[in-house]
Design a protein that fits this description.
- With 289 residues, the protein is mostly helical.
- Helix content is 68%, strand content 0%.
- The longest helix has 22 residues, at 212-233.
Length: 289
């Protein structure tokens, strides 16, 4: 049941609520609610025959519920129309997955999907840099936002209380509070003040990766290190050189057992030779520095 299906698309007056939230609200309130029996019959029809008209009726009759949930996220500074549209997408996903045989109403099942879509939209668009990536951070982000509306800046006691309630550490709470109170800074914000221009990240965050002098120095240092390694390696006996080359410098690394069979000794003996050779190698390299 793709969201782009014509049968599932809202009609022209409902598809873009951003034109007038008030008109949209009036339009969806005029859509009759379904009784439990009507809802079950439509859901069964959808599951058994994939009737898109049944899906459309289930979606349309629950749009007012989506708007009610979206209204609770007004404090994030994002367009209300976009929040409603994201919630509608969550509702469509819920309708697709709804199982009428479980014995719960669609509205109870859909709330998770509606909130999940709205949460994803908020986290993607609230800041340029993501403020919450893990499940614990996402839970903390939304709960701390509601807590701060009541408490303002959190005291240490309030921090510990929030940490206990949400099952996170006080450090996590303080870090999220800092993220919530920090505004995004433009990398190269235009300004007429020469002094303030220096404060923009573009004034002090330089990328030296492709500086010709740095690149040349890096290449020369790598060549120098490689030369020291092979020079020190040549001072070892032939067997030690062969073992180190096959163990560490070849495309395919030989195992201790493979070398043990080749030299007709035990794997432990190969390990001892390798260990002694590595010590001599480090000593030879240090002498050339």
């Amino acid at each position: 049941m793709p969201a782009s299906s014509p049968a599932l698309s809202l009609n022209a007056s409902l598809s873009v609520p951003g034109q007038s939230i008030e008109n949209y609200a009036q339009a969806i309130k005029a859509i009759p609610m379904l009784t439990a029996e009507q809802e079950r019959d439509l859901a069964v029809n959808l599951r058994e025959t994939e009737d898109l008209e049944a899906a459309r009726q289930l979606v349309m009759s629950h749009l007012r519920f989506v708007m009610h949930i979206a209204n609770s996220y007004r404090g994030y500074g994002l367009p209300q129309a976009d929040l409603i549209q994201e919630g509608n997408i969550g509702l469509m996903k819920a309708v697709k997955r709804f199982d009428p045989t479980v014995g719960v109403r669609l509205v109870s099942f859909a709330v998770h999907w509606i909130r999940a879509e709205i949460h994803e939209y908020i986290l993607r668009n609230w800041r340029i840099v993501k403020v919450a990536t893990t499940k614990a951070q996402r839970k903390l982000f939304f709960n701390l936002r509601s807590s701060k509306k009541r408490l303002g800046w959190l005291t240490q006691e309030e921090v510990e209380m929030v940490a206990r309630d949400l099952g996170v550490t006080p450090k996590d709470v303080l870090e999220m509070e800092t993220r919530l109170s920090t505004q995004d800074t433009a990398f190269d914000a235009p300004t007429d003040d020469e002094e303030s221009e220096i404060l923009a990240p573009s004034g002090y965050l330089e990328d030296h990766r492709f500086d010709p002098a740095k690149v040349n120095e890096s290449h020369e240092w790598a060549a120098h290190g490689s030369g020291q390694l092979y020079s020190a390696l040549e001072k070892l006996d032939a067997r030690s050189q062969d073992i180190l080359r096959k163990r560490w410098l070849g495309d395919s690394k030989a195992t201790l057992q493979e070398l043990a069979e080749e030299y007709s000794v035990s794997a432990e003996r190969i390990r001892q030779i390798e260990s002694n050779a590595m010590k001599k190698l480090r000593k030879n390299i240090s002498l050339t520095v």
